[in-house]
Amino acid sequence: MTTLFDSDRFIPFTAEQIANLKKSYLAGESTRSLARRYGISPCTVRSRLKLMGVALRGQGRSLRVTPQVMATASAMRAQGQPWKIIQQKTGVKAESIRCAMRRARK
């Protein structure tokens, strides 16, 4: 039996559960969903996946940067609007939009 820790709680995990955690994440299941299933925090799920050498996906918020948000943000930036206003208008964090725009340029 292997262990995972969540805050001060000791959580025993079998080798099979750890393998399933990794397999489920790689199949596309979210850290939040896995955390609910195993009764641990999403942060613990992410840290255990990192320890297993799994490359983590983005943390959800960037998924809100839709093509429509990108188009709105691009148009507003072209008009000289500050990031704070763009964030308020789109409801998406300015840093998430900036990162998505940088990725799109590559």
What does this structure look like?
With 106 residues, this protein is mainly α. It folds into 2 domains: 2-51, Arc Repressor Mutant, subunit A; 61-105. It is built from 6 helices and 2 strands, in the order ββαααααα. The protein has helices spanning 15-26, 31-38, 42-51, 67-78, 83-90, 94-105, and strands spanning 2-6, 9-13. A two-stranded antiparallel sheet has the order 1-2. Strand 1 and strand 2 form a beta hairpin. Helix 2 crosses helix 3 (42-51). The longest helix has 12 residues, at 15-26. The model has no long low-confidence stretch (mean pLDDT 82).
In short:
The chain has 106 residues and is mainly α.
Secondary structure layout:
Elements: E1 2-6, E2 9-13, H1 15-26, H2 31-38, H3 42-51, H4 67-78, H5 83-90, H6 94-105
Antiparallel strand pairs: 1-2
Helix pairs in contact: 2-3
β-strand number: 2
Give helix % range: 55-70%
Structural class: mainly alpha
CATH fold node name of the largest domain: Arc Repressor Mutant, subunit A
Q: Under the CATH scheme, which architecture of the largest domain would be assigned?
A: Orthogonal Bundle
